[in-house]
Amino acid sequence: MVKVIGKGSFGKVFLVKEIKTSQMFALKVLKKDNIIKRNQVEHTKTERSVLGYVKHPFIVGMNMAFQSRHKLYFVLDYCAGGELFFHLGKLGKFNEPRSRFYASEIILAISYVHSLDIIYRDLKPENVLLDGSGHIRLTDFGLSKEGISSSSSGANSFCGTPEYLAPEILNRQGHGAGVDWWSLGALLYEMLTGLPPFYCQDRERLFEKIRKSELHYPSTLTSNAKHVLRGLLTKDPTRRLGSGPKDADEIKPHRFFASIDWDKLQRGEINPPWKPTISGDQDTSQFDDEFTTMPIFSPHSMQRAPIYGTTPMGDDNPFKDFTFQARILEGQLGSGARC
């Protein structure tokens, strides 16, 4: 354990070093009791399932997963550049070339996920990480849904982050892959202007504006930016840019992305517009001090108090198939073994 680099509703994310190889990872630790109490068991199992087979240069990879009696552990790629949310907060907004670069890499990641009949459903600045070179990596697949091939139907759960929810989710009319392109539009709007579209601190009023209000675009936006945003933030999912049978291939030719060589981008041959300054493999300067100043072990975890709500480890364990290993560690597994 090196340092805390993130905290959520169900646990923490730590920067850790593997003793045998000295390789750095992000360790996501979730408390089973919290997951069970908040009815998030299925979402957690979905995240573990999806991370077990997705493999893309712009998605955070899972290396291992395991559990103790009280906690679940995801061993993930460490992205030293931190959260897009952190950098956007420091600058207020990004210029158009930087926003376009991040949006383009997100498009490739979402397109790949959709090709596997998965919808992501939680695109927001907090879930977009930057690696040490400045390329994006999507993380947190807890709200993903597998087996969805339609752009406008197949899923029915009311889930997501309020500012980025598509109208069809709020209308509870069923939704599909098109919700991810709405969220892309909301994220691109925020990168270019500093605030999500329809921003309002009153949640009910926010939802009403997303469902019914016309969006206004600052005069500082270029005509190309306005045009692509209007396409992505179309309330009718059947008419939204990207929601046709070609998915992302409807978005890529848009004139806003005219400068992007998509093949080179996929191969990582386009340099990011900004590269984080990182001094050494344990540098956490690109993460918020709110997290990195937290104690690794919380005071109550050091006490020898009885623990209640213990999750069983046998057949009754709701997480019994959680264990995963993507790579073979010398001396630990037999030849060709994989668990």
TrEMBL record:
* Superkingdom to which the source organism belongs: Eukaryota
Organism, by scientific name, is Fragilariopsis cylindrus CCMP1102
| Name of the protein this chain belongs to | Camp-dependent protein kinase
Q: Which UniProt keywords apply?
A: ATP-binding, Kinase, Nucleotide-binding, Phosphoprotein, Serine/threonine-protein kinase, Transferase
Where do the Protein kinase domain residues begin and end? 1-257
AGC-kinase C-terminal domain location:
258-334
GO molecular function annotation:
ATP binding; protein serine/threonine kinase activity
One Pfam family name is: Pkinase
Q: Which Gene3D superfamilies match?
A: Phosphorylase Kinase, domain 1, Transferase(Phosphotransferase) domain 1
Query: Per the similarity annotation, which family is this?
Result: Belongs to the protein kinase superfamily.
Q: Known PROSITE patterns for this protein?
A: AGC_KINASE_CTER, PROTEIN_KINASE_ATP, PROTEIN_KINASE_DOM, PROTEIN_KINASE_ST
Binding, ATP: K28
- PANTHER family per the UniProt record, alphabetical: RIBOSOMAL PROTEIN S6 KINASE
SUPFAM superfamilies the record matches: Protein kinase-like (PK-like)
